[in-house]
Amino acid sequence: MRSNLQSTPEHLAARRGFCVAVIVERRYLSHAQPEGMIRGLRAIGHSVVVIDPEDQVLQTSDSSWMRNIDIAVARGRSCGVLCLLDCLERHAVPVINTRAAIGAVHNKAEMTVRLASAGIPIPRTWIGSPRQVARQLLSEDFPVIVKPIFGDNCRGLELVHDRLQLGALEWPEPTAVVQQFIPGHEFDLKLYCIGQDVWAVRKPSPLMAKLFPQAAQLSPQVVPLTESWRSLALRCGLAFGLELYGVDCIKTEGDPLVIEVNEFPNYSAVPGADEKLSRFVVASTKQESGQ
Predict the structure, then answer these.
(1) C-alpha atoms less than 13 angstroms from C-alpha of 252 in its C-beta half-sphere
(2) Which of 93, 96, 250, 280 could bond to 88 as cystine, CB 3.0-4.6 Å?
(3) DSSP string over 111-154
(4) Residue 2's pLDDT is what?
(5) 15-40: average pLDDT
(6) 57 against 282, higher pLDDT
(7) Structure pTM?
(8) Domain 125-180 is in which class?
């Protein structure tokens, strides 16, 4: 496997610390993460090999590219990312997050089923074609959000106000996730997790920003973490086997409702996120290697 982003063999041979492979979708290469984590790892003396799956050709019989890797960290859920993680895991290279964990939150329908099965509070949700779901809903169930099974970053969302509109919705997939819309909230509650550490961040709702562009100008802010929020976040991580993840919630009069769980977010507004992430990766590597 070749990439102009990889460290040279000579550099790897001369390294003093661990070699961390960061497998990242191209769209995330310039994001706050994993760029900040990469800087943090290099600052404390570890080698980082950045692997962009779109810039690779994987020869399935050649495992030499992973020979020097002590641990791999992935950001993204593309086929290329998941394939590389599968290769690494089959050669006993430790990874964060695992392929199975990322796959479990990739499919929004399966993610919602798993959340409900784990007893985690979520908005009322239906899975099926928009036309089929429209036949079952009552007028008081609206408005609803219609989500693509494999969408992310609010792409493909539709806000639907009644049964007629839902039944007539042109939908490109045979199945959708239809979720009750909880109105009146310009901010979401984000629970950002690094292992057992959790931070609560008040962040503009991507959906509300889509409806009201002025909401997108508001800055995310860290808010005090309650014990119930921390417990909720860790339950979500346990349900999917995630180590680096975010939980998107909507605050209600009672407990928050979980909208989605996402692997390896940007950790917006989390203080010292770069260092916290890099230290977590190093600690995980030491644990895996028995140091």
Answers:
(1) 13
(2) 93
(3) HHHHHHHTT-----EEEE-HHHHHHH--GGG-SEEEE-TT--TT
(4) 41
(5) 93
(6) 282
(7) 0.90
(8) alpha beta
